[in-house]
Specification:
four-stranded mixed sheet; about 100 residues
């Protein structure tokens, strides 16, 4: 994604997470090389990690490593190539305890 497109997508996702799910979202890709670019905090203490790639974009080894590592630690962590698939994942995986 271009930076302008990425910024617009982040704003749209931020609005959705805050208004529809009551959570927060942060850029997390500055933590480590390959770390997922979105950290999503939802009610009930749920933390999810998402990497949003442009269609046809390829994964770097660090991205594959962090996805597997976070999943091993018990976190929801996925990679998406479409915005709508990311939204559907949040809705499907959100805990409602």
């Amino acid at each position: 994604m271009t930076s302008k497109t990425e910024a617009a997508t982040f704003r749209r996702l931020n609005d959705y997470v805050r208004k529809q799910r009551g959570g927060e979202i942060f850029h997390a890709d500055i933590l480590y090389p390959g770390f997922p670019d979105k950290m999503i905090l939802l009610p009930n203490g749920q933390v999810m990690f998402a990497e949003l790639k442009r269609p046809g974009g390829s994964l770097r080894p660090g991205q594959m490593y962090w996805r597997k590592r976070l999943q091993t630690l018990g976190f929801e962590a996925e990679i998406f190539y479409e915005y709508q698939a990311l939204i559907e994942w949040i809705e499907r995986e959100e805990k409602t305890d």
